[in-house]
Design goal:
Elements (H helix, E strand, L loop, with lengths): L1 E5 L2 E5 L3 E2 L4 H11 L6 E5 L5 E2 L1 H16 L4 E4 L3 H9 L7 E3 L1
Parallel strand pairs: 2-4, 3-5, 4-6, 6-7
Antiparallel strand pairs: 1-2
Helix pairs in contact: 1-2
Length: about 100
């Protein structure tokens, strides 16, 4: 996983799975990189091959973190399998998804 801060946005890339095994570490790393001057979070999901309920919880937490700063959370280019999970849980209505 890599993070890159630009202007007021933290971009997260390189996450290949967001599961019970990795969700906590991913969340901690992103939270640590989300410095006070940043308000927006762009999560690049184009390489995410697996997403489970713990991963969904992490995405919701990250969205809340950005919202607390009056920022936005965008899910960038999610894979078809991730989109399927988001649609099954109706979270595709909650997240801003950018193709």
């Amino acid at each position: 996983m890599q993070t890159n801060a630009s202007n007021e946005t933290l971009k997260v890339t390189g996450v290949t799975e967001l599961t019970a095994l990795s969700a906590r570490e991913v969340k901690e790393n992103i939270t640590a990189a989300f410095s006070p001057e940043l308000v927006n979070l762009d999560f690049d999901a184009s390489q995410m091959e697996f997403l489970d309920s713990s991963g969904l919880g992490t995405l919701i937490s990250l969205q809340k973190l950005a919202a607390l700063r009056n920022g936005s959370f965008r899910l960038i280019s999610p894979t078809p399998s991730s989109i399927q999970i988001l649609e099954l849980t109706r979270l595709h209505r909650v997240f801003q998804i950018v193709s």
